[in-house]
Design goal:
The chain is mainly α. It has helices at 2-13, 21-26, 33-44, 47-60, 63-73, 75-93, 98-106, 109-141, 148-194, 201-212, 225-238, 243-246, 255-290, 306-314, 317-350, 362-382, 388-400, 403-411, 417-440, 446-449, 455-481.
C-alpha cells in the first residue's frame, strides 16, 4: 500500500502547470539523459522480465540468458540508428506519435493509419501480461487470499491514477523510481536466496544443479544456432518498435540524451537480466530436492510462478513484500508507458481519421482513452491463452514487421508509401499464418523457417517486398513520364 501511494504521489508531483497536449504526451521534450535512460530501461522491464524470464530459465537453463543478453546488448545500436533521427524530426516538425512521423515523411495518411493500427494491435496482448503478472504474484504470495484478478485490478487502478494526473512526465519519473527500486530489491533477494541454508551459496548451488540437472548448463534442444541468431537479431529490431519506446525518443532534451541511453542500455541491462534468470535456473534445485511445489518439473504454465513460489518458501515476510514491490514496479513501468503511447496514437492519429478533434480537447480525450485501454488490458488478462513468454514473443514478431519500413522512411530517399504498405500487409499476413499454425498444432514448413525463429523469414520477406515494390514503382513512374 505504501509503495502504491508513493507511485501516485510521484504522479501528482509530475503534473505540470503547462496544460498543453505536447507537455502531457511528450513532457515538452525536456527529459535529461539519465532520466531518459532510466525510463527506457524500466519501460522494457515488464512481467516478461520479472516472471517470464524466470519461468523460461527454469525450463531452458542458462542457455536462455545467452538468448536474451546477446540481443539486448545490440539494442544500443538500434537506439542510435533510430533514436537520433526520430528525435530530430520530432523536434523540427512537432511529431508526437510514431504514425505521425511515418505519415508525415511519406505524405501518406493511409500508411500512417496502417502503421498505427499494427502498433496498437500487437501492443495490447503485451499490455495484458502486466496485470497478468500482478495477479500471479499477489495470488501466489498471499496463498490465494488475494485472487488473481483482484491483484490485476489493483495494479491497473493505481497506474491509471498517476497517468491521468501527469501524462508522460509522471510516467518517466515513476519509471526512475520503479527502475531503481526493482534493481536494488532483485539484487538483495538473489543474494539472500543463495545464502539460505538449504541452498548453501553459489558454489554449492552450482554443484547440486550440475550433479542432478547438467542439461541446464548446456545449450541444447531449442537453443540451436539458428534460434540463438534469431533472437539476437529480433530484440534490437523489435524493441524500438514498441510504441512506448519509440515515443520516448521524442521526449529527449537533445541528441546527447539519446547517445547516453544508447551506451548505458547494453552496459547495464544485461547485468539486470542475470537476476531473474538465476532464480529460474536454480529454482530447479528447490523443486527436485524438496518437492515443495507439488511435483517436478512444473508445467509450462506453472513455471511462470517460479519466482513467487520460491519467495513463499525461502524468503521472510519482509523480503517477500519488498520483492512484490519490485515486481509491481516492473509491471507498472511497462504498462503505464504502453497505455500512454497507445492513447496518444489513437488521439493524434486514429480519431482525426473519423471525426474532427479540437486541439484543446486532445488532452481530455487522451485521459479517457487511458481508462478505456486499461480496461481492455484487464479483459485480455482475465483468461490468458498462453505463458507470458509466448504471448510477448508473438507480439514481438508482429511489431518487427514495421522495422524495415521505419528504417527506409528515415534513411532511404527513394522509398515509396505504397511499397511500405505492401511490405507491412504481406508481413502481417505471414504473422497471421504463423499464429494459425501454432494454434492448430501444425508446424510451419521447414522450407520456410529453415530452423530459424519464424520472425526471421518474415522480416526477410518484408525487406524483399519493400525493395522490389519500390523498384517496380519507380520503373512504372519513369515509363509513364517518358
Amino acid at each position: 500500500a505504501i509503495y502504491l501511494i508513493i507511485s501516485i504521489g510521484i504522479g501528482i508531483y509530475g503534473r505540470s502547470k503547462n496544460d498543453s497536449a505536447e507537455d502531457y504526451f511528450v513532457a515538452s521534450r525536456k527529459i535529461n539523459p539519465w532520466i531518459l535512460f532510466c525510463t527506457l530501461a524500466a519501460t522494457n522491464f515488464s512481467a516478461f522480465f520479472f516472471l517470464g524470464f524466470a519461468g523460461a530459465s527454469y525450463r531452458a537453463g542458462w542457455g536462455f540468458y545467452g538468448v536474451m543478453a546477446m540481443g539486448t546488448s545490440l539494442v544500443g545500436l538500434s537506439i542510435l540508428l533510430l533514436g537520433i533521427p526520430i528525435h530530430r524530426l520530432g523536434k523540427e516538425k512537432g511529431y508526437v506519435t510514431p504514425p505521425e512521423l511515418i505519415a508525415g515523411e511519406t505524405n501518406s495518411k493511409y500508411l500512417g493509419w496502417l502503421y498505427g493500427t499494427v502498433l496498437v494491435i500487437f501492443t495490447l496482448p503485451y499490455l495484458a501480461t502486466q496485470p497478468m503478472g500482478a495477479g500471479i504474484l499477489l495470488e501466489t504470495l498471499s496463498g490465494g487470499e488475494i485472487p488473481y484478478f483482484t491483484g490485476a485490478f489493483i495494479l491497473t487502478c493505481v497506474m491509471v491514477a498517476y497517468l491521468t494526473l501527469g501524462g508522460m512526465k509522471s510516467s518517466a519519473l515513476t519509471d526512475v523510481f520503479q527502475g531503481v527500486l526493482m534493481f536494488l530489491i532483485l539484487m538483495v533477494f538473489v543474494l539472500s536466496f543463495f545464502l539460505h541454508e538449504d541452498i548453501g551459496g553459489f558454489s554449492e548451488a552450482g554443484k547440486k544443479l550440475w550433479d542432478n540437472k547438467p542439461e541446464k548448463f548446456v545449450r541444447e534442444g531449442n537453443f540451436t544456432w539458428q534460434t540463438m541468431l534469431s533472437f539476437t537479431i529480433l530484440w534490437p529490431i523489435t524493441v524500438p518498435m514498441f510504441p512506448q519506446l519509440f515515443s520516448r525518443f521524442y521526449i529527449a532534451e537533445d541528441d546527447r540524451a539519446i547517445r547516453t541511453a544508447a551506451w548505458l542500455y547494453p552496459t547495464v541491462v544485461p547485468i539486470l537480466f542475470l537476476f531473474p534468470v538465476m532464480i529460474g535456473v536454480y529454482g530447479n534445485i528447490v523443486d527436485f530436492e524438496h518437492d515443495v511445489f507439488g511435483g517436478y518439473p512444473l508445467t509450462k504454465a506453472e513455471s511462470d510462478n517460479i519466482l513467487p513460489l520460491i519467495l513463499t518458501e525461502y524468503a521472510p515476510l519482509w523480503m517477500a513484500v519488498l520483492v512484490s514491490m519490485g515486481a509491481m514496479a516492473a509491471f507498472m513501468s511497462t504498462a503505464d508507458s504502453q497505455i500512454l503511447a497507445m492513447s496518444t496514437i489513437i488521439t493524434k492519429d486514429g480519431l482525426p481519421a473519423i471525426t474532427e478533434v479540437k486541439h484543446d480537447d486532445e488532452k481530455k480525450i487522451g485521459r479517457i482513452l487511458i481508462v478505456v485501454l486499461a480496461i481492455v488490458g484487464l479483459v485480455l488478462a482475465y483468461d490468458p491463452p498462453d505463458t507470458i513468454f509466448n504471448i510477448v514473443s508473438q507480439a514481438f514478431t508482429g511489431l518487427a514487421v514495421l522495422f524495415p519500413t521505419t528504417v527506409a522512411v528515415l534513411y532511404w530517399d527513394r522509398v515509396k508509401a505504397n511499397s511500405c504498405i505492401m511490405s507491412i500487409v504481406v508481413g502481417e499476413i505471414l504473422v497471421g499464418w504463423s499464429y494459425w499454425s501454432a494454434s492448430s498444432g501444425t508446424p510451419l514448413p521447414e522450407w520456410f523457417t529453415q530452423g530459424f525463429h519464424v520472425s526471421m523469414p518474415i522480416i526477410l520477406v518484408t525487406i524483399m517486398v519493400l525493395w522490389i515494390s519500390t523498384e517496380i514503382e519507380e520503373r512504372l513512374a519513369n515509363d509513364s513520364s517518358s
